[in-house]
Amino acid sequence: MLLLKDGVKYLPYEYSSEEELAQIVIEHIKEIFGANSLYFDPQTMKTQIGIIARNDGIILTLNQNQWYILEVELATHSLHKHIIPQITKFSIAYQQPETKRKLAETLSTLIQHDPHKKATMHTQKIEDIHKYITETIETPPTIAIITDQTTPELDAICKNLPFKTKTTDFKTYTRENTGINVHIHQFTPLYEKPPIPKTLLNILTVMEQIYKKGKTYDEAVKITAKKLKLYHGTIRAACTREIGLTSNQLRKILKEKEKMKQILTEKFPEYADIIKETMQ
């Protein structure tokens, strides 16, 4: 495949190793699994009978109360030999209560010592971190298999794994005669974005009138209320009280589009792309 942007060619990039692909995938965890996801470095699990299982990382998706075991593989390798034995070992280890207890303790400790992860948990109103992790891990994980290209072998493998699986191929294209420094990634996210919250929809409709149509705030509220068939007060509440602003604060912030954009992105991180597009 060839990508063409503004007359410039982008050519398929061949990863030098699984480690390189894994590193690039890790850099884009939030784009793959969602804004409220946390990545943890590969974990090794060992049962009392000596079975050892190691993964390519663990991902928690906080707003979905779900967790993933990450497997990153190059299609040129034997996926059958790599994935099935590893996930089978993990399945055996996962059935042991002691394994789950140790995993919960490990992840909880890592969060407590990582200010960013800890802040993300608090943003989602998760106060008892260990309890949340323990309860989440009680539900079997989803195996996330990320390769450089999908193969018939991978489809067959997924049907025979002991856990639910999700797959995506992660491709990279580099600008002709430039190399990896200028690149484009192509992949399908592994999460489904929920419908836009009504509060955000109301706000963005107002923002569109202000920043794209040149309307004043009061004019934008009237137009939005009529368009969405809502009371003016409902629209004003969405733009102020429901995002922690007073009317005076909002009117001042509206003069600084980037600041308003930042506030909305912090309140609704999963919809950063929609916010950005609406407020260009």
Helix content: 40-55%
Beta-strand segment tally: 11
- Could you give the order of strands across the largest sheet? 3-6-7-8-9
Low-confidence stretches: none
Distance between the termini: 31 Å
Strand content: 15-25%
What is the overall silhouette?
A: globular
Number of domains: 2
Q: Biggest sheet, in brief?
A: 5 strands, mixed
Radius of gyration: 23 Å
Order of helices and strands: EEHHEEEEEHHHHEHEEEHHHHHH
- Could you tell me the mean pLDDT? 89
Structural class: alpha+beta
**Alpha plus pi helix count:** 13
Give a written overview of the molecule.
- Strand 10 and strand 11 form a beta hairpin.
- The longest helix is centred in the N-terminal third of the chain and has 16 residues, at 79-94.
- By secondary structure, the chain is α+β, with helices and mostly antiparallel strands.
- 47% of the residues lie in helices and 20% in strands.
- The chain has 13 helices and eleven strands.
- Helix 4 (97-112) runs antiparallel to helix 6, helix 8 crosses helix 9 and helix 9 packs across helix 10 (232-239).
- The strands form three sheets. The chain has a five-stranded mixed sheet with strand order 3-6-7-8-9. Strands 1-2-10-11 form a four-stranded antiparallel sheet, with no helix packed on it.
- The protein folds into two domains: 3-186, no CATH class; 198-278.
- The two termini are 31 Å apart.
- It has helices spanning 18-27, 29-33, 79-94, 97-112, 115-123, 129-138, 152-158, 198-211, 217-228, 232-239, 247-253, 257-267, 272-278; strands at residues 3-5, 8-12, 37-40, 44-46, 52-54, 58-61, 66-73, 142-147, 164-169, 171-175, 179-186.
